[in-house]
Backbone:
């Protein structure tokens, strides 16, 4: 078991009303899962993903990640936890514009105290694996959307995370590029990486092993 | 990591070249100004501090109690020196001097070589008090022989071609007396108030008038310096010194006292017997200007750094999600801004080196880039501080955000941040406006002073010293001068009109007892009033037609008023015997316009005159002076002819103001330039940030012109607010400064309106260029960004 969420609530107070963003969520994710979270706009997909990624907090409930009780952990430990085990992939890629492909992929390693030689080897492996060696000195602005997302995924994978969280990873891509990215996720999953993705597309959801449907913050 | 950060820094510079250069130029100019001023301030603060025992050197000054207040002079009587050394055990050494400003320059001759050099007469322990290093000679012995002369290194070099082995050589003084070189001292450094080329022993002057006044209690022209023993309580000592004059004469109006010598330079102004400041006012003024400029530059830097940082919010968000710690980001942002400040520092140092010669001409000093460790540390400190302060906002504030809120785009610059930035712009412009007002007023006041009717004609008057053979026959010489075509008139006087400092109290017919008025004395010869173009108010001037006019005396109107004389002509006065008032002269300014016209009288002193004044027709100066020189050489072979124009000397009275006015002109210009650079940067940034908003407005139908006005007026409002804040402050400051002048311009409202308009105009011009650009962009581009 990778993570377990029990009776989780997240709300905001607006005027006198309490609006639930996440309502009584129960979820268990095992290693090797490939889960797709689906639902209409505003149903709480991204919020759930951010809570799982520990970027966002919640008001009530329990969240255990690798048997660590996240709900009791201090901010600092939580950050260490997600840095260690989680990689993020964003809809709009979020690459650093001033850095080249190579440097973007290398950045997470800088925060993990790897030696320079180690970093070189790891980044080279990653470039090789994604077939983008020829693009390593280009800046994000010089790449197509699909290529940028590829770099985004490579950056997420460089630290060898147990879990990849992807928020509509193909949302900004055309269908062909989207398909390539999804195939890549499938392949990664086969290699043992756990993946949770948020998606609007039924087709993309079929790549996963399990679908969670959300409506108004509730699993249906 | 370091490499990564530097790389990011360089790339973001490349991406934002415009703001980067604005930032760099602004900061480096600001730093350069501050350093220049710091150099000057440092130098001023160290004037006369180079002597080994400068904190133990004291000067005797005297307070004179007149009916209308206390006048303080830095001169005293020569014998005071011996008395202090004998009677006061706290005094280690004392010396009476005829200072260089009085002793002046004299012709020294070695073989065929005639040189004019400035000297002073001093007591035997002079070099024990003032540690001018003796290259040759012993400080205890060089002045024991009355016929000794001690030369500066450069004078020795000029006279003998070398400063080595000159001891024992003979120098002819004024072509009538011989002195033997007994030593050579290092030239006084440029931060010494005493600038002189040679010293003679005071003993050499026992027989010679007027230098024999060094040895009598009846004169108060010499200066007396003492070196106190270590650990002396100056208050206790002064309690004793202040009784000296009373002990000698129960009815004296004088009180002698000791003040620290090295402080007199900066605190040389006395009012009613109290030390009230002096040049220190300018030192403070410029220190404040330096700090203001630095603040203005820092504000720019801060504003642009924070503006840039909020553009880089995304980077912060991404880095946080992929594992950057907060401290890592803090180090990155602080590092960037410190690096930036250090780059600016390097440029600033280069700028200082480039502009130091010009700066030196303006301030009239010889400053050099110091290799002094203190200053270098200070300079680094300032740059480091600037970098850290400017970088602290993005480093501490922005790095604290949660990654998710940044990436969701929830933070687009907070309300507080915008207001801080606006507030800083207001402060910056307020400071610039204060500077502009000051410059306008200072400039007008200086103009006013220079064009003021002084009561005499200062233009086209040449004056020079009476010396050599002209001394015995100056009347013959003057009558020859009058024959030169182009000479309107000529006369002689005891003092030049400017920098006059000779005064006395008087008894007159009908005087109330114990009335002590201090009168300025001007000793003159025939035709003086005519040569100077002064106006008689009553009676007549000195004239050969009235025979023995030696007994006549002429007062100015202020004097007559102060004395309370109703019908002055014919009244008798006691001044070197009995004199009769033959006329009154209209007031004229013989001191700077800082002070009111004082009571004054003119008396005939053909024996005491030492300056010749020649009034020359306008337009014929060159040939007339050549002619004058020929005549002078005929009378005085071997004496170099050195003349001065009176108006130059007049201008020198306002040297300090002139310098302040020139300097503040430059600094105010720079301040407004730096402020505008900041404004430009912010305008670029705002236009960028509001691109989407502008696009939407245009899609909804707002015209480009309306958008331009909207963007520009936002900045114009800031400048208007700063005008409102700045004007009262400027008024207070400048009013305070004008109070230094007894005769001053009225503070017209136009100075303030003008300064405000200048600032507003420059600001609007700066901003509108950016606003126009932003307004004319295609709205689709702006919307596509999302």
Residues:
């Amino acid at each position: 078991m990778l993570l377990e969420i029990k009776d989780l609530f997240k709300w905001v107070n607006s005027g006198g009303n309490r609006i639930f963003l996440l309502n009584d969520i129960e979820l268990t994710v095992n290693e090797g899962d490939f889960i797709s979270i689906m639902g209409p706009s505003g149903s709480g997909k991204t919020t759930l993903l951010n809570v799982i990624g520990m970027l966002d907090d919640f008001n009530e409930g329990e969240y255990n990640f690798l048997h660590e009780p996240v709900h009791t952990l201090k901010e600092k430990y939580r950050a260490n936890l997600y840095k260690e085990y989680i990689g993020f992939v964003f809809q709009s890629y979020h690459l650093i514009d001033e850095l080249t492909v190579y440097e973007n992929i290398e950045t997470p390693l800088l925060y993990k105290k790897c030696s320079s030689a180690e970093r070189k080897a790891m980044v080279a492996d990653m470039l090789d694996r994604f077939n983008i060696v020829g693009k390593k000195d280009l800046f994000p602005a010089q790449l197509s959307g699909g290529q940028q997302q590829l770099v985004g995924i490579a950056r997420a994978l460089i630290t060898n995370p147990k879990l990849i969280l992807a928020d509509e990873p193909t949302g900004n891509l055309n269908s062909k590029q989207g398909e390539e990215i999804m195939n890549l996720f499938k392949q990664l999953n086969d290699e043992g990486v756990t993946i949770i993705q948020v998606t609007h597309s039924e087709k993309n959801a079929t790549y996963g092993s399990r679908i969670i449907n959300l409506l108004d913050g509730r699993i249906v | 990591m370091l490499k990564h950060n530097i790389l990011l820094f360089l790339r973001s510079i490349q991406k934002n070249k415009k703001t980067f250069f604005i930032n760099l130029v602004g900061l480096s100019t600001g730093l350069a100004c501050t350093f220049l001023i710091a150099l000057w301030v440092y130098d001023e603060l160290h004037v006369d501090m180079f002597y080994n025992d400068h904190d133990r050197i004291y000067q005797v000054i005297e307070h004179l109690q007149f009916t209308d207040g206390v006048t303080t002079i830095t001169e005293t009587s020569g014998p005071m020196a011996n008395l202090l050394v004998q009677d006061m055990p706290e005094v280690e050494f004392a010396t009476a001097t005829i200072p260089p400003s009085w002793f002046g320059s004299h012709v020294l001759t070695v073989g065929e070589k005639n040189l004019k050099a400035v000297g002073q007469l001093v007591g035997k322990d002079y070099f024990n008090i003032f540690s001018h290093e003796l290259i040759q000679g012993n400080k205890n012995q060089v002045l024991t022989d009355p016929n000794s002369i001690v030369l500066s290194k450069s004078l020795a070099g000029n006279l003998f071609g070398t400063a080595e082995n000159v001891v024992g050589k003979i120098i002819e003084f004024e072509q009538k007396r011989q002195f033997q070189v007994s030593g050579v001292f290092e030239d006084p450094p440029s931060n010494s108030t005493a600038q002189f080329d040679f010293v003679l022993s005071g003993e050499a002057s026992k027989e010679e008038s007027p230098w024999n006044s060094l040895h009598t209690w009846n004169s108060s022209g010499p200066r007396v310096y003492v070196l106190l023993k270590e650990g002396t309580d100056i208050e206790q000592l002064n309690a004793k010194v202040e009784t000296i004059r009373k002990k000698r004469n129960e009815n004296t109006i004088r009180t002698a006292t000791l003040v620290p010598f090295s402080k007199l330079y900066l605190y040389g102004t006395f009012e009613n017997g109290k030390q009230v400041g002096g040049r220190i006012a300018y030192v403070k003024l410029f220190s404040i200007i330096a700090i203001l400029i630095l603040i203005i530059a820092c504000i720019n830097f801060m504003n642009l750094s924070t503006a840039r940082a909020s553009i880089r919010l995304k980077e912060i968000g991404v880095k946080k999600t992929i594992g950057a710690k907060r401290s890592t980001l803090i180090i990155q942002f602080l590092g960037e801004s410190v690096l930036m400040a250090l780059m600016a520092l390097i440029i600033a140092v280069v700028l200082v080196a480039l502009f130091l010669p010009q700066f030196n001409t303006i301030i009239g000093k010889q400053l050099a880039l110091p290799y002094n460790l203190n200053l270098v540390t200070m300079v680094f400190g300032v740059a480091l501080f600037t970098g850290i302060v400017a970088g602290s906002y993005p480093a501490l504030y922005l790095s604290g955000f949660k990654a998710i809120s940044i990436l969701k785009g929830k933070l687009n610059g907070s309300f507080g941040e915008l207001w801080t930035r606006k507030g800083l712009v207001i402060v910056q412009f307020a400071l610039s406006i204060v500077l502009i007002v000051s410059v306008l007023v200072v400039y007008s006041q200086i103009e006013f002073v220079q064009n003021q009717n002084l009561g005499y004609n200062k233009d086209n008057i040449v004056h020079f010293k009476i010396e050599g053979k002209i001394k015995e026959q100056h009347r013959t010489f003057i009558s020859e001068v009058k024959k030169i075509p182009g000479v309107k008139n000529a006369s002689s006087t005891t003092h030049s009109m400017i920098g006059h400092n000779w005064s006395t109290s008087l008894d007159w017919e009908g005087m109330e007892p114990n009335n002590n008025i201090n009168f300025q004395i001007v000793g003159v010869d025939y035709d003086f009033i005519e040569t100077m173009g002064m106006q008689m108010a009553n009676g007549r001037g000195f004239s050969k037609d009235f025979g023995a006019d030696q007994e006549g005396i002429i007062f100015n109107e202020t004097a007559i008023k102060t004395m309370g004389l109703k019908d002055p002509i014919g009244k008798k006065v006691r001044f070197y015997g009995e004199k009769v008032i033959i006329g009154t002269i209209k007031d004229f300014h013989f001191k700077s316009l800082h002070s009111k016209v004082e009571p004054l009288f003119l008396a005939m002193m053909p024996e005491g005159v030492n300056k010749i004044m020649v009034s020359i027709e306008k337009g014929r100066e060159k040939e007339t002076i050549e002619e004058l020189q020929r005549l002078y050489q005929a009378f005085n072979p071997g004496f170099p002819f050195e003349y001065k124009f009176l108006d130059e000397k007049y201008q020198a009275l306002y040297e300090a103001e002139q310098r302040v006015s020139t300097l503040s002109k430059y600094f105010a210009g720079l301040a407004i330039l730096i402020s505008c650079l900041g404004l430009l940067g912010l305008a670029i940034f705002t236009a960028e940030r509001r691109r989407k908003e502008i696009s939407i407005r245009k899609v909804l139908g707002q015209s480009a012109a309306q958008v331009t006005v909207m963007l520009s007026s936002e900045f114009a409002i800031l400048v208007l607010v700063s005008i409102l804040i700045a004007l009262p402050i400027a008024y207070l400051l400048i009013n305070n400064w004008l109070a230094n002048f007894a005769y001053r311009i009225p503070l017209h409202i136009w100075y303030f309106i003008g300064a405000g308009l200048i600032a507003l105009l420059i600001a609007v011009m700066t901003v509108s260029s950016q606003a126009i650009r932003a307004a004319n962009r295609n709205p689709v581009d702006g919307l596509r960004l999302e």
